[in-house]
Protein 1
Amino acid sequence: MKEGSMTISRKNKSKPIAKIVAFIILLIVCALWILPLIFMVGTSFKDEADLLTNPTTLFPSIDHWTIDKYTSFLIRDGHIDNMPLWMMNSFIIAIAKVVLTLVLDCLAAYAFVFLRFVGKKTVYSFLIISMTIPGVIATTAMFAMYATSAKTLNLVDSQVFTYIWLIIPGLSGVYNLLLMRNFFNSIPHDIVESARMDGASNLRIFWTNILPLARSTILIIVLFTFVGSWNDLFWPQLLLSGHGQSWETVTVALAGFAQGDDLSNMGVNMATATFSLIPIMIVFFVAQNKMIEGLSTTGMKN
Amino acid sequence: MKNEKEVNENEQVVDINQRAKENFVSFQNINKIYPNGAQAVFDFNLDVKKNEFIVLVGPSGCGKSTTLRMLAGLENITSGQLFIDEHFSNFTLSKERKISMVFQSYALYPQMTVYDNIAYPLKINKYPFEEDIDGVKKTIYRKLTKEEIDEKVFNAAKILDLGPYLDRQPRQLSGGQMQRVALGRAIVKNVPLFLMDEPLSNLDAKLRLSMRSEIVKLHNQIGATTIYVTHDQTEAMTMASRVVVMSKGFIQQIDAPKMIYNHPANIFVAKFIGSPAMNIFETDYEKGFIHLGEEVKIPLGDKFVKRHDEFYKEKVNEFENITKDFNLQSEQYIKKIQSALTTDAAPIEKTKKTAFFSKLLKAFKKDEKNKMENKQEVLAKEKLNLLKAAANGKHQVFIGIRPENMKAIKYQKDMDKTNKLLTKVTVCELLGAEYNIHFTLFNQDTIVKMPASEDVKVGDTYAIEFDTKKIAIFDPITGDVI
């Protein structure tokens, strides 16, 4: 006991400088990350006067707190403004992407790991190669395809058609598939073979034996896909420009706000930005807790 | 159109031959070649009767697990025919083969309780029921009811002493309990054929011992046919009604444990079976006598001389036929002989990478490729010459003798030293009731068994005597017993 405590104290004393340096570096990095966030949240609560006199402080001065900026974009002229609508749009796209990505990637990963078929390796290597191509390169071609298809089908004014084009290209990401495949590879194949001998079909094995084990990986994919979709700006902006505000997603609308550098507008900018973060925060905290839970309960003895 | 199709299908149906009819499981000339070109199983022939306990044993990479997986339907059969219960089963889906299998890793479903694990096959399958409907007997396929499943699961749990653990999760169980759950899942299926792939190798030594007898008891209780794969020769000896010894994809011997132990067919079996292993010495044979060093001369009798001459005559004949027309079959024959001669467990399976690179290399060096192919033929010719030389005159043989068939007598100055070898104890291991005494004879470690009542010390001099009736003599060229 005594010896143990001694070694611990010696360890602590041995490199105090290194620890302090590491702490300071971490502090700086954290500050760099979190300061804009605090500034954004703080500024969103400032009133007009404070915005003009103290634009650089993190928080509003005393007596200058207000939530007008939040109410002003939620309710304008007595009726609900576009913000909830934009959030709804973003939400629909994100959920659709999450669900479809999960279905596609889990089934594809199952096939890659547990099924035997001709050309498995070839298909897989093509997918890996496709990862090396930056998404931006495909954008022009994709936009051309969207424009021509919308024109020929006479669906330029169809919101559903445009949204399908927003959702589908995002599903081709190989990263999630890779994540799932790696997890499935860590599951002993004996389990699948045993279930197969017991008379289970592939779909049943997938549903009752494999998916329950993959909970943690599924949550990681949910988190990544949701956040990625919510924050996506480039592609939606390209498709949604010129279609009016009611089609826009949160990021596209916010980008519109940020364009004016009118100081008095800043309060609203910051409020909308803060507001749009809320769903991501919720998803993150829910998924993070469950993720750790999932990781700790799927431990398999092998 | 329809008729044509039927005719085609009929052509594909394989004749159920006599062997398939007489045996429950019949492997006929089964070969397994992996897509990378590595052959894991060569010409596997085995007939299993009902209620037999067959153990496939061999060093790792000898093809025993592959064979079992082919029987289970988890691995394709490259060529040959597999019959299960008089059905040609090469292409039958594994779930339709009426087989249950126990895996080395237990393969329990981690998220399900013990009850759900055992009930899994019962829940998902439909079972036939004979029911009277208006006096007409009909077979109806339906799922089991909750009560029926309960009854079967509780029954299995009772047999395996799993009652208190039914609502636990697999990770809360010990290794032995997990193994029993895996056995439970196998027995509720109520199938006639059990396959076990090294089920005990993840358990600790003591548990392995008790599970060994439990599995045999279970086998007798259920009256199933069991095919069991292991690399542990003790398990093979103690559990099997017949043992199949394999090496490098070839069957070396199929026989009852006692026969395998006392009459090994070749040098590989002799070395592999038995713990401690058989002592093998290189000696010279000349005209009915074996010369062990300079001191010992073992007479073998006229019968052996006759057998010896016939053996070599036969082998020379065989090799002459082979070398005359060297084809794929003869190549396999040489490979089989090589598999008996080497005991190192070099894995057969090449990784894909090396297979690819060696192919590439071969493509560049065409001459090399030809040489490679000829290697076996050169070997065959060499062996033929050796056999011819051995057929008449003095030649080398291996003699094998089990540790319990050697006698060590404490050296005294006035003792009779004829046919005895003097040597010193190098290591002595006490096993409780007996000693395993290590000596150095002809520069190699030799083990002799001795009762524990003797007082043995390292460095003592002993005279070793052979029980000449229990010597096995092997031909070093082919590895076969003479």
Protein 2
Amino acid sequence: MSALLTLRNVFWAATSLGEIVLIGYLIHRKLARSHFWLFFYLCCTVAQSALGVVTYSVFDFKSPATRNIIWGSQAVVITMRFLAACEMARRILARYAGIWAFAQRVLLIVAAGVLLYTAVFSDKHLSMMILTVDRGAELAIASFIVGLLLFARYYRLEISPLDRALSIGFSLYSCFYVINDSLLEKWMEPYSGFWGFMDVITFLACLFHLDPGGSLVCSGPGIRQPQERAFRPLRSTIP
Amino acid sequence: MSLAPLFFILAALLLLGLLAYAVRPIEKRALSPDSVFEALSEPRHSFRLPQILQSLQPSDTEFLERRGMRLLRQRIRSERTQIAIRYLNQLESDYETLLEASRILAVMSPEIVAMQEFERLRLSVRFAQNCFLMRLRLRAGFAPWKGFATISDMATTMSFRMESATSQIALQSALAADSASFMEERGGGR
């Protein structure tokens, strides 16, 4: 178990390093302004990692303060990711005013619809609410981005390689996040350590994925949160 | 037992499938704007509808029955049904071209065409559904008059819409060019 935790921490450090490299890349290529929300989101993920380290060293794993800080920071990170996805949609579609006007409505309605559907179909137990909202938000982001890519395909719009890599990375991460969360909720609670490790691996796989041409692409989807640790205080509230 | 986790897993898998479809390379070559305008100006198969409907009328081949050529009548009617099915395929192909044209116009257009996209999507679904039912009707030997007229009307409506959108885009481009030259003249006069 401790070997797994060590390995997970190594991967956690590697992903934080990947995020810092991506921030450096955006600054170096002078993309920080045009990709402002992505840049801000990456900064938030690095800050979240640092906050996680500080929180776990100061507070007990099961303390309410730990739970509030970790899940609070998670809400900020997810919001930033959604804003980065909206910014990406604007970059891809805004050149085509007519399509953009139509797509804005459709994509926002799809995202809101998925959130609503999630709320209706989810476990109404109060202790599971955070996990549910988190998963619903991820599903909404994934639907938004996949919808965006379908729009681009239908109208045969050009997408820059960076935006293409970002959109694939974002949506892959969100989809696997939803699957991971659902597996954890239903079957894997006794293996939450392994689950936390898989979450880090998912993030790394989405951060560096292969593009259709076969070359390695860095996309920076979402930070893997210190989920396994964050989940413990949450689970401690479940009777 | 809660089914919520299963629902989420299925939803995520569906999204992964759609993602794989969305990032797949496009095989069909897109039409160039020139070929779109050419396709819009070509005569449509829907103009031949009266002849097709006439050929499918039972009264058109009744005289063969009266003269005792029942087999010949059956053969002619079967051949005409095949021709009607081919005609239906051509109508569908026309409609596909119009859809392709609408995509290109939506990309070129500032706002006119794309706002009607939802309406076009609805129309396309109805068109495909009507074509499917029409094929079944033709094969089963039922009277296809009403269905054919509906399909043909839909293709014609789509064609008119495309033409009107093209005219509006042309008008907007002309107005934009006019105002640009006007501004240029004013700027040059100072």
